[in-house]
Amino acid sequence: MANTESLNQVIRLLKYEAAHNKCYTLYNRVAPDPTGDGSIWLDMADAQNRAYRITKEGWLLETDVPILFRRYEHQRPLVEAVKGGDAKLLLPFVNIGANKSSITTQHRQLLLLVQTASYLIPNIAHPINAIFGGHGSHKSLAQRYIRELFDSSAALLLGIPRDENAALQVLDHHYIPIFDNLSYMPNWFSDMLCKAVTGAGQESRVLYTDDDSFIRSFRRCIMLNGLNLPATKGDLLSRTIMHPTEPVDKTLTEKELNEKYAKVLPEILGGFLDVVVKALKLKGTLGESKLFRLADFTEWGRVLAIALGETQGNFMEAMEENLRNQNSVDIENNVVAEVFLAYCKEAIETIWATEEQPFTSTPSEVFAQVTTKAQEIGVNVKNSKRYPQGANLFTRKLNDSKAAIIASGWNYETTHNGQYRVISIWNITNPLEKTITTMINSVENHTKLLEAS
Question: Are 268 and 343 part of one and the same domain?
């Protein structure tokens, strides 16, 4: 048996070799080619160390794979994809929309397919997939099926970890983590998911007895599900695509559904690989367009939509709908923002305020006026966890939903005038033009009623 000194010498030698030889960046499941040629690798995580290589020319299941991937115990091998598959075969297993022929349902299905295809694009921020709906809508099952495509695991469904360190480890180990059946989300976990979408880094000590440390850095394709929308905070909502589901007709058992899905899984995977091949060809050929919160996803989403046989216009319309839903939910979940908007729409001093001539007051005075409005519409303002008890917390709660407030046609700014804090509020839309339009609409409606009578 080697003595302690010999072991220490070997450890020092290995540390030296690791520090002075070539370093490799290791990825979880999906990686860019290390040569920088634009191709993409998807790890099979099987005993043969195979991986799919996706290029502009096509895709192949390769056995000669560069040093790219870090493996974890929970990972399971992916299925072998077939050529000429169809990504849209996924849709019957995710029951989105009550009216399957409506434009809204078609847009939501397109967003689901684009979002799923984007999981094969490395090094971008991927929006959160949030599925919600009533009992029997197969929320968990639908997300399991999506995860099986690219990140098969022995632990497909996860709960909220006990603390931040445990959450970091879970997010590090799972490329497409599914946080299942959520009814409540702690603020710290909501904040951590935001970081995991846009790029999280955390330094930790290797052992409690030494000074060595290691860095966890990752971007993840996160899924959430629950009876109601799990994401409620504005910053998390702005990184989320919402997928409301409908109850499923109980004609098949879960076992039968699993068997049915397993039969088409190789075709669905092959279809998504084909979509990314087409998207790689199209990338960079489209003109400029509006960018949403996750700009890289928007850019890739446009080409992925075309690769799916849809139009970039339909994708952008679907994103606009999702943005409107985000803002609506944000306001609904922030009673302060909701009452503030009600106050702005009725107060003469704010209705006619413009950016050049805003209504300006102290935060305390505005807080008092908004609180009066809250009492008028029946909001509990005393001893309430939802409603702040002071002006400082009032402006903080407003800031949580500022993007949604701006989308609703109002803006505000808190500054210091040299003596005390002031808040300026203004109407983003032209108030005179808005009033004239309202009057015209009113006259037109009145004329129609007279003609009808």
Answer: no
Q: What does the mean pLDDT of the chain come to?
A: 89
Contact 280, 54 (CB under 8 A): yes
The answer to whether 218 and 195 are in contact (CB under 8 A) is: no
Q: Is-contact 246 143, C-beta < 8 A? A: no
- Rounded CA gap, 150 and 27, in Å? 14
For the chain, the domain total comes to 2
288 and 371: one domain?
no
Terminal CA-to-CA distance of the chain, rounded, Å?
103
The domain that holds 168 is classified in CATH as 3.40.50
pLDDT per residue as tens digits for the range 187-202? 999 999 999 999 866 6
Residue 386 is assigned to a structural domain of this protein: yes
Dump pLDDT digits (tens) for 288-338: 888 888 889 999 999 999 999 999 999 999 999 999 999 999 999 999 999
Q: What is the mean pLDDT of residues 50-78?
A: 96
Does residue 213 lie in a domain region? yes
Kind of pairing between the strands at 421-427 and 359-361: antiparallel
Residue range of the domain that includes 198 = 73-324
Q: What CATH number has the domain bearing residue 345?
A: 3.90.1150
Q: Between 441 and 97, whose confidence is greater?
A: 97
What is the C-alpha separation between 87 and 279, in angstroms, rounded?
14
Q: What is the pTM of this model?
A: 0.84
Do residues 302 and 312 touch, judged by C-beta distance below 8 A? yes
Task: Please indicate, yes or no, if residue 125 is contained in any of the structural domains.
Answer: yes
The per-residue pLDDT for 13 is 73
Please check whether residue 141 is in contact with residue 254, taking contact to mean a CB–CB distance below 8 angstroms: yes
Residue 212 has pLDDT above 70, yes or no: no
Q: Are residues 257 and 351 in the same domain?
A: no
Residues 6+ apart with CB under 8 A from 413: 358, 423, 424
